[in-house]
Design goal:
Length: 344
């Protein structure tokens, strides 16, 4: 089969089209003919490196996949060839204490498709049958490929971890990103007032269209000072943080007393400055979150399929133009998800 691979970590120029073996289908697996897939910032980190110890090349990434079941394993009776599906890219062992309690995103052997194992940037993907969800007929594959990782991450972050309530204020950083564009909609559905941070008038307008009540252009204002000014120095109840080092201190400053900072990423640095005295005086909570569990995936995809939440697509590229898609994402030019169309 064809895949868009890289043979060593580095720049986008490392990506190329290659023939690779078609994956084997285990007893509990399904083989999916990939129709569309989409990028996340994780794909940049995986491609840029350094490679994980024991990494095997060629490697191909992309966690988000929509397609058609091509083959089912001998132990699978929940679907059949020809079914249209999307993939939950959160992979867990199903046996550890966390998986048994329903918290599979805390699995001791947790993996994300396209991170440590090859992903969806190929014509076929073998995945455990428990990781697929039926795709309604009125959903196109390209639209569906913009759903899984970002909506699952945003849903768990705001509903489970932050426990966002109606009437609360939430500050969402990186509003042009996939998770943030999903989070704006989820926060609006929850009845919160939304402060969104992005850059440029065009992206600011898009964030407002999605439901942001206040949009702060980080090129024009200090978002922490402006947030405090607009809330009469009270601060916001929740900050959804994904940038890391450059914004961490400001994000904490934005929080009201008993506020919650939920972090799901570190696009610009791993280490953040924390004023510990301010932390305990304000009784701030710092909460990490990664992906979500199967119940949360079912909850958020149901809302998307009901059109109460909608995937935001920035641009669709042909499969063979994955390199250009990486370049667009790396430049930060996108608003929403960059999608690849695979095959006819």
């Amino acid at each position: 089969m064809k895949a868009m691979v890289f043979d060593a970590c580095g720049g986008p120029e490392k990506i190329h089209l290659a023939e690779v073996p078609k994956p084997d289908v285990g007893r509990e697996d399904v083989l999916i003919q990939v129709k569309a897939c989409s990028l996340n910032h994780m794909d940049l980190f995986v491609r840029q490196g350094p490679a994980e110890p024991g990494a095997k090349f060629p490697f191909w990434g992309l966690a988000d996949v929509a397609g058609v079941v091509s083959e089912v394993g001998a132990g699978v009776d929940t679907c059949r060839p020809g079914d249209r599906v999307i993939v939950n890219p959160a992979l867990s062992c199903g046996a550890c204490e966390f998986c048994r309690s329903g918290e599979d995103s805390l699995c001791v052997d947790f993996k994300i498709l396209g991170d440590e194992i090859p992903g969806g940037a190929a014509e076929y993907l073998a995945i455990p049958a428990r990781n697929i969800t039926p795709l309604p007929d009125d959903f196109g594959f390209e639209e569906a490929a913009a759903i899984p990782l970002v909506f699952l991450t945003a849903w768990r972050a705001l509903t489970t971890q932050a426990q966002l309530k109606p009437g609360e204020d939430v500050l969402i950083l990186g509003a042009s990103g996939g998770v943030a564009s999903a989070a704006i909609q989820i926060a609006k559905l929850a009845g919160a007032r939304i402060f969104a941070v992005t850059s440029g008038t065009e992206k600011a307008a898009r964030a407002q269209e999605l439901g942001a009540d206040v949009v702060l252009d980080r090129n024009e204002v200090d978002f922490a000072r402006e947030t405090l000014r607009l809330t009469a120095d009270r601060g916001v109840d929740v900050v959804l943080e994904n940038v890391g080092t450059p914004t961490w201190k400001q994000s904490l400053q934005c929080l009201a007393r008993a506020g919650r900072l939920v972090t799901y990423g570190r696009t610009a640095g791993l280490i953040g400055e924390t004023n510990i005295r301010e932390l305990f005086i304000k009784q701030t909570r710092i909460i990490g979150t990664t992906m979500g569990n199967r119940r949360e995936f079912a909850e958020v995809t149901r809302l998307v399929f009901q059109r109460r939440l909608r995937p935001v697509i920035d641009k669709v590229y042909p499969f063979e133009q994955l390199r250009a898609a990486h370049e667009r994402l790396e430049a930060g030019a996108q608003f929403g998800k960059i999608v690849l169309s695979v095959g006819s």
